[in-house]
Each structure stands twice: as structure tokens, then as C-alpha cells.
Amino acid sequence: MLARIASQRLLMVRQAFRRSAQAYRSFSTALNYHIDSPDNNPGMPWEFSQANKAKVKEILSNYPSNYKRSAVIPLLDLAQQQHGGWLPVSAMNAVAKVVGIAPIRVYEVATFYSMFNRSKVGKYHLLVCGTTPCMIRGSREIEEALLNHLGVKRNEVTKDGLFSVGEMECMGCCVNAPMITVADYSNGSEGYTYNYYEDLTPKRAVEIVEMLRKGEKLPPGTQNPKRIMSGPEGGNTTLLTDPKPPPCRDLDAC
Ligand code: FES
């Protein structure tokens, strides 16, 4: 009897593992594979805009001329902003040409860092933090509320092209968990912003979406009116006075 229960459990674990491995494979395939399509192929012309060419020069000036390859990440970031939030293969090739390296070196970077998108995203790309502190403070409910409200799956774009929802790992804001980031590609690289919205609830996350839709300006940072930045809710309870200055020797008295 016990052996039968144990073997049933083993079977269930194997099935769960197989399901999650399939999901993981399809996710990593989406991130790392390139298949030519009409709007994403090496024959598609792509170059930095006139305004961004000046920024490219400025970025390159931060590195020694024999280390131009160090500029790959900021240049990919600029290319992604210019291209509405994602990097077609021809944009990566343009970056490779600017820094004088083989395109594969640029593909390696773009497919390694999750802030680079290899397929289309919405004008507002919402990134829900899925790491432990945010998760135990309700990030899954926030993601669910966003996906339900927008009627999309994770990494899908809404029909009007305005929104997409992705996931990120810890964005260094755990003290105000749960949080999301909104990458705003609605105004090209000139108007690009990447703002954190913290201390979120599912209701507030949906309100933020609707405010973005109306083009309203949102106050980034904590969404809890009882907190100031990362301070305790309701105000400080310690360190209420100015700290004493450090003790200094009176050198005249020595
Ligand atoms: S876990 Fe979400 S910001 Fe650190």
C-alpha cells in the first residue's frame, strides 16, 4: 500500500516537473531564439535617429577608444528606447557596427539581460517584481489583476498596442514591496521613463493602468499615502531629533 502511494506521488512530481520544464523552455525560447519575420530580419534597415547619433557619440566618449565594446549595454538601451521598447535583429546589428564587434557578441548581451526585449512590448511595459519579498507581499495577486484587467497573458501586448505585462526579478526596492516598474516607450527615447510604483495593491495597480491610458501624470514611488518614501507608515518612531555631532578633541586644550 505504502509503496503504491509513494509511486503515485513520484509520478505526480514527475508530471509537475515536466509541465514546469515545458513552460520554462517555451519562455527561454521566446527570449533567446530568432526567427526571421517581416518586421524582424537582418535585411530591415535600421539606424540611430539624428538626435540619437549625438547621444551615441556621447556614450562612446565615456570609454577608451580601444574599449568601445564596453558601450554595448547603453547603446542597446538607447536602440530599444528608439524602437518602441524592443530590439529587432537589425538594431542589434547596428549597435555591433557602431562598436566594431561581431553581431553575435551583441546578441549574447541582448539575450542575457532581461531588460532587453526581443519581441514587441506595449507602449507601457509593466514589469511586476516576482522575487520573494514582493511575492509574499502580494505580487502574484497584482500580476493577476493586471492580466485580467488588460485581458492578456504574460508578455502579450494588448490589441491597442498600449500595454504589456512582464515579470522581473528583484528591482532593489524590497522595503516598499510589492512593486512594479512602468517602462514608458510612448514618446520615443526623448520622453522615455522607467518609474517604480511601490506599496501596491491590485486595486491601485489597475488604477495606475487607467491613469496611464488617459495620459495622466502619476506620482512614482510609494502608493501608500501614510508613508514618506521608505519611512515607516504613520511617520518616524525613532531618530526623532538631530543626531549628536561626533565627539571632537579640543586641540587647543591638548
Ligand atoms: S523583491 Fe521586489 S523589489 Fe526586491
Ions and ligands: FE2/S2 (inorganic) cluster
Order of helices and strands: HHHHHEHHEEEHE
Count of helical stretches: 8
Our Rg estimate from Cα atoms comes to 24 Å
- CATH architectural type of the domain at 124-222: 3-Layer(aba) Sandwich
Query: What strand order characterises the main sheet?
Result: 2-1-3-4-5
Number of strands: 5
- Overall mean confidence score, pLDDT: 89
User: Which segments are poorly predicted (pLDDT under 50) over 5 or more consecutive residues?
Assistant: 20-29
Main sheet? 5 strands, mixed
Q: Per CATH, what is the topology of the domain at 124-222?
A: Glutaredoxin
Query: Which homologous superfamily in CATH is the superfamily of the domain at 124-222?
Result: Glutaredoxin
By helix and strand content, what is the structural category? alpha/beta
Bin the helical content. Answer: 40-55%
- Ends apart, CA distance between termini: 87 Å
Features:
254 residues, Arc Repressor Mutant, subunit A, Glutaredoxin, five-stranded mixed sheet, 8 helices, binds FE2/S2 (inorganic) cluster, NADH dehydrogenase [ubiquinone] flavoprotein 2, mitochondrial, NuoE-like
Structure, described:
- The protein has 254 residues and is an alpha/beta fold.
- Among the domains are: 50-112, Orthogonal Bundle (Arc Repressor Mutant, subunit A); 124-222, Glutaredoxin (3-Layer(aba) Sandwich).
- Helices cover 41% and strands 10% of the residues.
- The protein has eight helices and five strands.
- The protein has helices at 2-32, 50-60, 72-82, 89-99, 103-112, 132-136, 139-150, 202-213, and strands spanning 124-129, 163-168, 180-184, 193-198, 221-222.
- Strands 2-1-3-4-5 form a five-stranded mixed sheet, covered by helices on one side.
- Helix 8 (202-213) links the parallel strand 4 (193-198) and strand 5.
- Helix 2 (50-60) runs antiparallel to helix 3, helix 4 (89-99) packs across helix 5 (103-112) and helix 7 packs across helix 8.
- The chain is globular, with a radius of gyration of 24 Å.
- The model is unreliable at 20-29 (pLDDT under 50).
